Amino acid sequence: MLGGNSRSRTHTRRTRGGTASACAAAVTATAVLLGPAAPASADLVPDYRPEQWGLQTIAAQELWEDTQGQGVTVALPGTSVNEEHPDLVDNVRVDTRFGTGGDAGAGSAMASLAAAHGHGFDADGGMLGVAPESTVLVLPTGDRLAEAVRFAAQEDVQVILLPETDGAADLAGATQAAVDNGVLVVGPAGGPEDPNVLTVAGTDADGALVPNSPDTGSVALTAPGADLMAADTEVGYTEVTGAQYAAAMAAGAAALLRSDHPHLLPGQVRDALVEGSRSGPEGLPALHLPSAQEQATAIAQDNPAFEEDVLSGDGQGWAVPVWVWFATVGAVVVLGVLLVVLWIRRSTADPYGVEAERQEEDERIAAERAAEAPPASRRKRGGRRRRTRGK
């Protein structure tokens, strides 16, 4: 995962610059001499897909008809990435709130192995990652790696890919927070022990562990990790070897499974990758996506979107206490009753205004009668009428 004995190495192949310019000049000169011909620009786009033995080994293409990682974000904290590389444009988002540090060479290679989409006409050139339609959230940082991991866990990512470091940073708390938030954490094997991280070691094209690999006891999964074609810091490509690049392949594989089975918990996706593997070097599990997909499908069938253990709070990750469900249902019922009562009262309370008109008419009649009544006599009751004299 972090640090370790695995040594990463790179061998850069330049696909732009002198050689490409010379080829372009030759094509232009030929066009001038011979006149218009079929477009030759596609011939200038390098196609390294046949050389991507890692994709063929894990059989990633067999899942691409169902999913290519769409809707999934892989966070890559602690590194920089060339987001303008033609194979990564629009698949990478860089957030520099934690700094601008990190190995851009390693970061660009890891991002491309996980999520490169190729380029050229119909993406027929360049290279492809394991999940070419997923997104990579890059969080460059110096000594704030743990903060970056915690931030990524809150940013609606599904997978976190850890870089190779010197092991000085204590990430146990951050990785636990990530798992609690439903994120699968993947990293290179060989660093401090962390049960929250799916640790990956690299193998070569012959299926053997790469030289200077960490002790097998620290390895949970193996994946292609030697002489892998990857994006460099400019617009070209490089061959890389190391555990962190094998971890990038595994992170891309996790993105495919999480895209196809979004309701599975991190531990269930991890089990699918490990248990749905093939036998690898020294008895270690070797990543194989078709069998991992079968395992994930079986887990999904046994664990539907609304699981009993999740409802009872016994699951991991997003467990919801039972009392919350009862309180929610009770609130809905009470609200429904109140709405029904209000509707009944409104529907029976003189909807056409008849009572109001009747009361107004009674008041008008009473006022008219009062106006027509004769004035009251001023003679006091019981008084004697005085007789007129002389009569």
TrEMBL record:
GO molecular function: serine-type endopeptidase activity
UniProt keywords, alphabetically: Hydrolase, Membrane, Protease, Serine protease, Signal, Transmembrane, Transmembrane helix
Signal peptide: 1-42
Signal listed as a keyword: yes
Keyword Transmembrane assigned: yes
Regions crossing the membrane: 322-344
Stretches assigned to the Peptidase S8/S53 domain: 69-277
GO biological process, one term: proteolysis
Disordered, as annotated region: 1-21, 352-391
Bias (Basic residues): 377-391
InterPro entries: Peptidase_S8/S53_dom (IPR000209), Peptidase_S8/S53_dom_sf (IPR036852), Peptidase_S8_subtilisin-like (IPR050131), Peptidase_S8_subtilisin-rel (IPR015500)
Family: Belongs to the peptidase S8 family.
Protein name: Peptidase S8
Organism: Nocardiopsis sinuspersici
